[in-house]
């Protein structure tokens, strides 16, 4: 029975997390035809991209997460827009002419509306900034805002060039996440670290995607910088306390710790540049 | 300690052998094994280094790893393992049922629910002491429910069903909280935490639970004589001056204190209390009183050894301790049920 509970809880987490981390849009709307005016988004990440690209009047509904300033970068712009759960009936009630969502969340809803002929766009998890540019362009085309999309991409690229530190000795960093997870090659966190001119210790150790690094290995690796994300500092459980484990402070007295607000990392969005900005600022001192 | 013991011996089991006459031999064997397990626990980890070097060079990197990572982990393993073994033996003795165990009967689940409630409300962050208190309250309510449902002389079926019911209640409560929690990361955190682990704990956790655990141990170890008397039947026990009500209160409180606080810092770790008393029972002449201390030692050995195993088994990610004890314990549980069924037929 305990096993079942893990499976259930795991699924539950997966659904919740998929909401926050991955996203989807299907079909090409607006190509030649009329531009969509009742857009519904059922994933936080598509909420964020959408509000960057279209006027709020054209958005029929967003996820409830979009209004939470702790996880959403567009919370201030969601006023007056309906918040829905993402179930089929809830979406249907909004009468959408374009549905956008994440690849892994509310699959049934996405499949249902694909069948009914409403344009659906789905987004995957970005692995780098190129993926974000592609997502922005994809959505921009679908909502008939190609120029705006290009402008946003251009602005992000310019910002990243400006932030790129002059070449020199790269500081060695590790992004130490909940339960000792460390993002390695091919993760968005790694792209952010690279953009900030840091060398990712997880990549040095040959970790692809996500791997684990215990406290002992962390101490042995002697990082210059340890990055945490802000959700961890809320330490809901005993495990969260690993981040303030006395052994880290004693064995690595020189290490610089940087806490990145989770909302800049949840999704690949124009706001992700902020994560790079914080890293550069905190590590170049 | 001159109670006749024959009556408590299940049919078909040979009478106690001579080795049961000298518990000190058993204790010293267990003590020796415990030292080996403890040494193993501080020696094994991601890094290979000689403990001698670590101790000889204070304030070196290795010494911090030894003193602040390895040692608290081993100490916590000892405390939690002893707690689970002792609580299992005490519950089996009091309920006179070899399938009684904190995990199976829902005490662990209740403690986990209590701890999750403390995380969920954020009390744990504001006031760390609330964490063991939450675990203890959860465990307390579970044990209380168990005795209300099942009483002291319930049949195996009634007892196990009561345990299933309490586990379901605790699980629903935990699921409800996971369902309601706003922050998806907290869900991940709680799910992983529930799998049970001793990894990366510090002495802060040890000191946080130590007073509660020691109080619980005292209450349970105190009951040795009473449990021996009880094994002769409730009437005999009463005539020997044992108050069942007081005994029950001590066992409920003792179990809640030590199991609740242990689970609160280590997550759900099950089956230790089932396996250990069962294996050691023949060596103490089937005497529930002597089984208490022996099971505490045995529980500590089993948990430390399992914790060494999770670090030695080569796998992509470190296995969770609670998962390993469940993998060991579940077949054992089935085997016990199978044997009992055969006996009943």
In brief:
The complex is a heterodimer of chains A (285) and B (345). Chain A is α/β, with parallel strands linked by helices and 285 residues long.
Structural account:
- The complex is a heterodimer of chains A (about 280) and B (about 350).
- With about 280 residues, chain A is α/β, with parallel strands linked by helices.
- Chain A has two domains: about 25-160, Nitrogenase molybdenum iron protein domain (Rossmann fold); about 170-285, 3-Layer(aba) Sandwich (Rossmann fold), CATH 3.40.50.
- Chain A is about 45% helix and about 15% strand.
- In chain A, the strands form three sheets. In chain A, strands 1, 2, 3, 4, 5 and 6 form a six-stranded mixed β-sheet that branches. A four-stranded parallel β-sheet of chain A has the order 9-7-11-12. Chain A has a two-stranded antiparallel sheet with strand order 8-10.
- In chain A, strand 2 (about 40), helix 2 (about 45-55) and strand 3 form a beta-alpha-beta unit.
- Chain B is mainly alpha-helical and about 350 residues long.
- Chain B has one domain: Orthogonal Bundle (ABC transporter involved in vitamin B12 uptake, BtuC).
- Chain B contains 15 helices and no strands.
- In chain B, helix 10 crosses helix 14 (about 290-310) and helix 13 (about 270-280) packs across helix 14 (about 290-310).
- The longest helix of chain B has about 35 residues, at about 60-95.
- The model of chain B is unreliable at about 1-20 (pLDDT under 50).
- Classes of the chains: A alpha/beta (about 280), B mainly alpha (about 350).
- The interface between A and B is large, with 45 and 57 residues.
